[in-house]
Specification:
alpha/beta; Transcription Regulator spoIIAA; five-stranded mixed β-sheet; 10 helices
Length: 268
């Protein structure tokens, strides 16, 4: 068997493999005209090979990157490395989320003669990611509720770990509650926070400053002896932020700031 026969067998085998891959594989020449689409790709776009052959790829896939500087196919044909990214393409008059990999197609001499794309429909993945984000947001909202404790006095009890994402959610919750209730004092109770380090302390300071910009005083309660020692050892200054060891003391200070006097029932 001569070399040409072996090459033909290899070529037929390669074509057979590409046709059986259950995801879209496409190839274009330097003019961005389609020179190959496998069976899965033709099924995705709803065209026959006779219809798709030689068409500009942007007329077939109509993705949001087509015809723009974001087109990864153009980038790899200009010499950039193969890249994988997300995009949206139009299929049957609606856009679907996809993930595609673009790579340069080269001849035996190493010259770039076109480009290859591998396209995956990630609709289910995006839907699941969205669901997980919604669940995460719901859990965070439940775990960090802002409660109207008194007229224009709000409390935000914090339990668990405070990271950057949690701190941003806490700030959003507090600022929204201040706007909704016209609060003048907000108590940030950190008794349930497992550990306070420099990062956590900086998050608390930022939250307190943000509330001040909205005309609201922030009192941090739940400062335990261990937390107090940690803040001192780390050299962290809370500035002019009022602090208390207990929620009761914080509420008492809030009443003083609001010029509210609480008396036992029946007292004069």
């Amino acid at each position: 068997m001569n070399t040409s026969n072996i090459d033909r067998i290899d070529s037929a085998l390669a074509d057979n493999i590409l046709q059986q891959i259950p995801t879209t594989v496409m190839a274009v020449n330097r003019d961005m005209s389609v020179v190959f689409i496998n069976k899965a790709g033709l099924e995705m776009i709803g065209k026959s090979w006779e219809q798709a052959k030689g068409m500009p790829c942007r007329d077939i896939f109509q993705s949001r990157h087509c015809g723009t500087e974001q087109c990864r196919m153009k980038q790899v044909m200009a010499g950039e490395q193969a890249v994988t990214t997300r995009n949206e393409m139009k299929v049957k008059d609606k856009y679907i989320p996809i993930e595609y990999t673009a790579a340069a197609m080269k001849d035996d001499a190493g010259n770039i003669v076109g480009g290859l794309e591998y396209i995956i429909d990630i609709t289910l993945r995006v839907r699941q990611e969205k669901k997980l984000k919604e669940q995460s947001r719901t859990i965070m909202e439940i775990s960090t509720p802002a409660i109207k404790l008194w007229d224009r006095v709000v409390i935000l009890p914090v339990v668990g770990v405070v990271d950057s994402l949690r701190a941003q959610q806490m700030m959003n919750t507090m600022l929204t509650k201040i706007m909704e209730t016209s609060a003048k004092v907000i108590i940030l109770d950190i008794q349930g926070v497992a550990a306070v380090d420099t990062a956590v302390a900086n998050h608390l300071i930022k939250i307190a400053k943000a509330t001040k910009l909205m005309g609201c005083r922030c009192i941090i309660s739940g400062i335990s002896p261990a937390v107090a020692q940690t803040l001192v050892q780390l050299g962290i200054e809370l500035g002019g932020i009022s602090t208390n060891s207990t929620l009761q003391d914080a509420l008492s200070d809030a009443f003083k700031l609001m010029d509210i006097e609480v008396r036992p029932k029946g007292s004069i």
